[in-house]
Specification:
About 65% of the residues lie in helices and about 0% in strands. It has about 1200 residues and is mostly helical. Among the domains are: about 230 residues, no CATH class; about 220 residues, no CATH class; about 180 residues, Leucine-rich Repeat Variant (Alpha Horseshoe), CATH 1.25.10.10. The termini are far apart. It is found in: Cytoplasm. It comes from Cardamine amara subsp. amara. GO terms for molecular function: calmodulin binding.
Length: about 1200
């Protein structure tokens, strides 16, 4: 079988109708687990899968036959023929199965690439996909446009993608109290200009000018934020000036190079936009707000130099504290302390300004992702490890820099300096999809796509980012599937298999693609296809009246009806959406819409071959190659600029066909959104590009007639745009005609072409493709540049119109307030003369400054070149000197090492010789001693005793040596033991210090979290209080708490079910716990007798013990009040009942009864009543003795810590109660 031949037709089930959403995806996988199987599966006469058998069946000829049963020659030949045919059939079956598997794999890869392109296009251009993140009037407006309505600001946002440092997030409710204009502006401005901040002005005189600071801050912050910053800095500067917050002596940030580099690195962790803004607010200088590339290496080097030279130094202080102004680096005492205070104020002011500006302009996560859906740029760079303002302050001002500060932030929070902003990990997440099956496993990109398609940002608050383990991946995938399920999207594939979060997290290819296709069909397709417009378009194409209503159907069926109505005009029958794989339907669609929009007569000439109507581009070359059709269609739609490349040209050329019909459906959906809404038709209409020369005269006339209008400003860029588009289209047309001619020539010519001819045609085609791609890229870049230019021009026109409007309003107000006209006119003349004079002076100064700057820069460049040359030679000389020194040092080290090796070998030889000598001498001495002892008895008394004296002296020397060696050994052992003990003690001290710090940190965190919780719940408490008061005022008397409690108490003893009694007791317990009035009413209603009766009637079962516990707890709440405690004492049998519960319980009821008896014994009457019961007091004493004995036994036993604690607690309660009874 040929490789290019389609596989043989195998029996299969009848295909589903075209309306099925997942017609072809069902063949992409083999089921891996049990699922819902179609009930008609067993009834179908056809197999579901046509695959080769894993085990080839054996033919009957291979079996052993007895000689008597051997068939004849004729039967054997027939059997051999059948066996060969069976083997051929099995071979064809295996090849067919293999080809089907390869086809499914290609289809899977093609659809995966198309879905990847769609997801990337959705993340990059959500507006082009019909996803409007601010559809629900959620608005981000600039600070200067707060006077506009919500919808106006939202329109500005949608058109300008307001992500910047001068924008502020607004909630869906209109903010009416922002305080920028009229009375609030004047009041806040007067408060900032008053004498309230005189101390701040005096304290910040070495840092910056407060007036200039306020003027620069008002451009980027609201006046309320400015006032808050001034209030906080007033308290902070007061603490710094009074010495409560200060650096160590000698200012380590300036004198210690390592700490200075660390501080600069901490500041550079800011995003360059925010760092430049903060430096501009503090130091001024318009160079910080330049339009050049912010993140370039040159700009980063510039910021580092500014921080090093301006942030960590002060020229005024250096001049004031200098010993000699001609000598740098010599300062009087106090300079570094003053410089440290200045640096402290600068960094705290910078961090506070940036934190408030970011907090004001950031986008809350419940409305979208900050920096992507709106808001402002990231506050910290993605590569930095610092992600919060607190962390920045800790890195910049560690304990090594500050004097007497364990935790600087705790001190700053006490005085009101709060910088709460923390950068969320989700704003740094890269949503671009590269490998779809791996990138979707964490579930984050899937949740982002659902948020855009459903316009529901609440899913962002439920995501877990970063998702760095399987548990978090499953949580994100589960959240995404829950939202899809709530949106009514099916979580099953075509075979009915359920798609779970484990399938997506594990990267199951077939199920993941099925899920994405369901999302595209149910969520993306309705956004791209407008049902009303599409229905009207079908009416127009078919020439029908709207009386004949088209039945409502799904978006896919509407797309099919739409393209079928167009292809019928070309006498082309399109059966279903699967028939679009040949590319003709898409080509007819483009040809119809492009030709319908053109009005040039040169394109409406009749077809010479037939008089059917206007000539189509398709009629020139009736090209039947699907690959070339789709390539041309993809290139033409790419002229739009905002259109996804759904069909990859490389895949089309690789597979020589469109593999997946779902990819064509995605392309058709995006084409419908562009063609039906008629977006960018001037660029899309390539027929008009063919006849651009026909309209030259008309453009010339229109340009002459509109020369005085505002449209004449944009006419020249439009004309250039049309010429560029014409060039691009002509390049594409030339490539298309060349491909068509090559295809026709290859069919008509014989198959015997030479290798040289095919290579030359291929080179020509490649060259033309490269030329067309180059022209397309160049013109597309020009188009982008012109679009940017037009945007800037429109912004400039808008600003000019606003300024002119403001000037005209000012002129009208001046006319209305025309009192004292002559005096004002004279004053205006004087002011005009003075301003003209002042302008001349300023102009001259400006010219002089520019000239002097040019001279200074030229001198600087000369000095820089000279210094670089000198440094080059000096560094070369230093490098040579260093090399020579290193070489000499290397020689010295080598000689020393060699000398050391020689000495070590000498010592080893010497030590070996000494050991040998010791052994030999010892042997000689031992032999002498033995000889002397044997001869001693034989010698006479007059023989000399000199050998004995020498032996004694030798023994004494040996003993001394042994003592010295033992002393040295014991000293070494003692030294090692002391070192070990010291190391353990130091480790103990370090662990204690660490645990103490940890406890302090935990305590501070707990207090801070408690404060945040109380602060967050304050509004909720107030709301609940108002709601309770409102409900209490409107509630029926029968439903009031008091009446319900009294009715429940009256029915308490008549209840028969334990759970009802338990519910009433729990209600009485909670009510008497918080309300004294409830206690009074219940006592008046006879609650004490009923509760005691209930306690006496309780058995030892668990439900009855729960009832008894709640009844005792209610009595404890009643005994808190003296009057009710007297009522309890006077009740007959109350003391005995409570004592009995104390003596027979060991759990929680024991302690409740103990509390009741304590409250009773706090009064004289209660003590006297208890003393009248000596038997119970005696039982209590026995209980104390028993618990004491048990506690002593448990102290000796190390096991059973929990039981020991309970026994000690019971003993403590009983002892205290006994003391109250006996001592009062």
């Amino acid at each position: 079988m040929n490789e290019n031949e389609p596989p043989c037709a195998s029996p299969a089930r009848p295909r589903n109708p075209p309306s099925s959403l997942l017609t072809d995806i069902s063949n992409f996988k083999t089921p891996r687990r049990s699922s819902v199987v179609n009930s008609n599966f067993s009834k179908s006469p056809y197999p579901h899968f046509f695959t080769a058998s894993k085990q080839t069946p054996k033919s009957s000829s291979s079996n052993f036959l007895r000689p008597s049963m051997v068939p004849s020659y004729t039967s054997r030949s027939k059997f051999a023929t059948s066996s060969r045919r069976l083997k051929a059939f099995e071979l064809q079956q295996s090849q067919s199965s293999r080809k089907a598997e390869l086809t499914r794999e290609k289809n899977l890869r093609s659809l995966a690439k198309s879905l990847t392109v769609w997801l990337n296009f959705l993340f990059d251009n959500p507006e082009s996909c019909g996803c409007d993140p601010f559809e629900n009037d959620s608005v981000v407006g600039s600070v200067g446009n707060l006077g506009k309505g919500k919808r106006d600001s939202g329109e500005v946002l949608r058109n300008s993608k307001a992500v910047g440092v001068d924008t502020m997030w607004r909630s869906p409710k209109r903010l009416r109290n922002l305080g920028w204009y009229d009375e609030k502006r004047s009041e806040t401005g007067s408060s900032l200009n008053g004498s309230k901040y005189s101390t701040l002005r005096e304290s910040l005189k070495d840092v910056c000018s407060v007036d200039d600071l306020k003027q620069r801050m008002q451009f980027h912050l609201s006046l309320g934020s400015c006032k808050e910053i001034f209030d906080v800095m007033t308290r902070v500067t007061k603490n710094i000036d009074e010495g409560r917050i200060k650096m160590k002596q000698q200012c380590p940030l300036v004198t210690d190079f390592g700490l200075k580099e660390k501080a600069i690195k901490a500041l550079m962790s800011y995003n360059q936009v925010w760092l430049r803004l903060g430096l501009y607010v503090i130091f001024g200088g318009d160079s910080f707000l330049s339009d050049c590339e912010v993140n370039s290496d040159q700009e980063m080097a510039f910021l580092k130099v500014v921080i090093s030279k301006q942030f960590f130094s002060h020229e005024g202080l250096a001049r004031a504290y200098a010993y000699n102004k001609m000598v740098e680096g010599l300062y009087r005492p106090g300079y570094y302390e003053a410089l440290g205070n200045v640096i402290l104020k600068r960094i705290l002011l910078l961090a506070l300004i940036i934190d408030r500006a970011k907090s004001q302009s950031c986008l809350s996560l419940k409305y979208g992702i900050d920096g992507i859906d709106g808001g402002s740029p990231l506050m910290f760079s993605e590569k930095s490890s610092i992600k919060s303002s607190h962390q920045l302050i800790c890195e910049f001002l560690p304990s090594d820099v500050m004097h007497g500060e364990g935790n600087l932030l705790a001190h700053l929070v006490i005085i009101g300096y709060k910088i709460p902003y923390q950068q969320s990990p989700i704003v740094e997440y890269d949503f671009r999809v590269r490998d779809m099956f791996d990138d979707l496993q964490d579930g984050v990109r899937l949740c982002r796509a659902i948020q855009l398609l459903l316009h529901d940002p609440s899913i962002l608050t439920k995501m877990v980012v970063p998702s760095d383990n399987r548990k978090k991946n499953l949580a994100n995938c589960r959240t995404a599937l829950e939202y899809l399920k709530n949106a009514g999207i099916s979580l099953k594939d075509e075979e009915g298999m359920m798609i779970t979060e484990e399938d997506v997290s594990d990267g199951d290819r077939e199920l993941t693609i099925s899920l994405l296709w369901n999302i595209f069909v149910h969520l993306q397709l309705p956004l791209l296809t407008n049902g009303k417009l599409l229905t009207e378009e079908i009416y127009k194409v078919q020439g029908m009246e709207q009386i004949n209503q088209i039945p409502k159907s799904s978006p896919l069926e509407m797309l099919l009806n739409w393209i079928q109505s167009i292809t019928r005009m070309y006498d082309f029958k399109l059966e279903s959406l699967e028939s679009l794989v040949d590319g003709k339907g898409i080509w007819f669609l483009l040809d119809y819409y492009f030709r319908r929009e053109v009005c040039c007569p040169c394109l409406h000439k009749k077809d010479p071959g037939s008089g059917k109507g206007p000539q189509s581009v398709m009629s020139n070359t009736d090209y039947n190659d699907a690959v070339q059709n789709f390539i041309l269609s993809q290139k033409l739609t790419a002229l739009l600029g905002s259109f996804p490349e759904v069909l990859q040209i490389g895949d089309l050329l690789e597979h020589n066909a469109v593999v997946s019909n779902q990819s064509v459906i995605i392309l058709l959906a995006f084409l419908s959104s562009k063609l039906i809404l008629k977006e960018n038709m001037e660029q899309l209409n390539f027929h008009k590009l063919l006849c651009s020369s026909c309209q030259a005269q008309e453009r010339k006339y229109s340009r002459f007639s509109c020369s005085n209008s505002e449209a004449a400003r944009n006419e020249e860029p439009d004309r250039e745009n049309g010429e560029d588009a014409s060039k691009r289209f002509k390049a594409i047309k030339a490539w298309w005609q060349d491909m068509a001619n090559q295809s026709q020539n290859s069919v008509g010519k014989a198959s015997g072409h030479t290798l040289q001819g095919s290579l030359s045609s291929k080179c020509t085609t490649d060259f033309q493709r490269e030329t067309a791609a180059t022209v397309i890229q160049a013109n597309f870049r020009g188009l982008c540049a012109r679009r940017q230019f037009r945007k800037k021009m429109s912004a400039i026109c808008f600003l000019q119109a606003a300024v002119k409007t403001w000037l005209s309003m000012k002129h009208i107000e001046a006319k209305r307030n025309g009192l004292r006209h002559y005096e004002i006119q004279a004053a205006l003349k004087i002011q005009l003369a003075w301003r003209s004079y002042n302008d001349k002076v300023i102009s001259s100064i400006l010219i002089q400054s520019y000239v002097r700057g040019w001279i200074a820069r030229r001198m600087y460049s000369k000095y820089k070149f000279s210094s670089v040359l000198i440094q080059r030679y000096c560094r070369g000389w230093l490098a040579k000197r260093t090399f020579y020194l290193q070489r000499g040092a290397t020689v010295c080290i080598q000689s020393a090492i060699r000398k050391f090796n020689c000495m070590m070998s000498l010592h080893r030889h010497k030590h070996a010789a000494t050991e040998v000598q010791q052994l030999v001498r010892g042997q000689i001495v031992r032999s002498r001693l033995q000889g002397a002892s044997s001869l001693c008895s034989k010698l006479d008394e007059g023989v000399s005793r000199l050998p004995i004296f020498g032996m004694t002296k030798l023994l004494h020397s040996v003993i001394k040596l042994q003592r010295w060696w033992r002393f040295l050994h014991s000293q070494n052992v003692r030294r090692k033991s002391a070192i070990l003990i010291q190391s353990h003690i130091r480790g103990l001290f370090a662990r204690r210090k660490t645990s103490m710090k940890r406890r302090y940190i935990v305590m501070i965190q707990s207090h801070w979290r408690g404060y945040l919780t109380r602060k967050a719940s304050k509004a909720q408490v107030l709301d609940l209080r108002v709601r309770i008061q409102t409900s209490a005022a409107n509630i029926d008397d029968k439903k009031r708490l008091m009446n319900k409690l009294l009715s429940a108490l009256s029915e308490l003893l008549s209840m028969k079910k334990v759970h009802n009694i338990l519910h009433i007791c729990e209600t009485l317990d909670s009510a008497t716990k918080y309300s004294d009035r409830c206690c009074e009413e219940l006592v008046a209603a006879g609650a004490i007798d009923k509760l005691l009766t209930l306690i006496r009637s309780a058995s030892r079962s668990i439900p009855d013990q729960q009832v008894s516990k709640h009844a005792l707890s209610t009595l404890r709440h009643l005994a808190r009040y003296p009057q009710m405690a007297d009522e309890l004492i006077d009740t007959k049998g109350s003391i005995q009942t409570i004592f009995w519960e104390l003596l027979r319980n060991k759990e929680e009821a024991y302690f409740i009864a103990s509390d009741i008896l304590k409250k009773i014994c706090n009064s004289h009457k209660g003590v006297e009543t208890v003393r009248r019961l000596p038997a119970l007091v005696k039982r209590l004493q026995a209980l104390v003795e028993e618990l004491t004995r048990k506690a002593n036994i448990e102290k000796r036993n190390a096991k059973g810590q929990n039981g020991k604690e309970k026994s000690e607690r019971r003993l403590k309660e009983a002892t205290e109660l006994l003391k109250l009874i006996t001592w009062r």
